[in-house]
UniProtKB/TrEMBL annotation:
Coiled coil: none annotated. It comes from Halobacillus litoralis. This is Tripartite tricarboxylate transporter TctB family protein. The chain crosses the membrane at residues 44-65, 89-110, 130-156. It comes from the Bacteria.
Length: 162
């Protein structure tokens, strides 16, 4: 039952984020007619996230309504237990914040490779073949930067240091 409430809360928070992100994407200036504008790709991602959030909300409301009344009485969990369950989530948020902070200094490529590699170290229990993870991080970052710069014509930050 706790996961049903958590899913519903996450869906509502994500829908609110989608609303703010869509408003933010409307503030992107238009450059020319006939080409896809700067808000095209963000609006696609926002739309997909909004649809998935709505599906999660519907699923969690349906699960809550159809659950038995006996399951609605949950044992209380301490704050320490909740922190232990979700600490990887909080570490991921902190890592993402550091990624955003470091990107203007180190540039897109270096900060993205470091972010992906560190995220793997944080979330994975398997520490074998770290060289392969580093190579995959480099390749994924290069492919994404190539797509953004050549096809979507989005300029990625080149850092102050690199």
């Amino acid at each position: 039952m706790m996961t049903v409430k958590r899913d519903a809360m996450n869906a509502v928070i994500l829908l609110a984020f989608c609303g703010l992100a869509f408003y933010g994407s409307t503030l992107i200036p238009e450059r020319s007619l006939g080409k896809t504008e700067g808000d095209f790709f963000p609006n696609i991602i926002i739309g997909i996230l909004a649809v998935l959030s709505l599906l999660l909300l519907v699923k969690s409301v349906y699960a809550y309504v159809t659950s038995e009344k006996q399951q609605r009485t949950e044992p209380k969990t301490s704050l320490k237990e909740r922190w232990a369950e979700g600490k990887k989530v909080w570490y991921t948020f902190a890592l993402f914040g550091a990624y955003i902070f470091i990107m203007p200094l180190a540039g897109y490529f270096l900060s993205s490779v470091a972010f992906l590699f560190t995220l793997y170290l944080l979330l994975s229990s398997n520490r074998k073949r770290l060289w392969l993870v580093l190579i995959i991080s480099i390749v994924v970052t290069y492919v994404l930067s190539f797509i953004f710069q050549k096809f979507l014509l989005v300029f990625l930050p080149s850092g102050v240091l690199f």
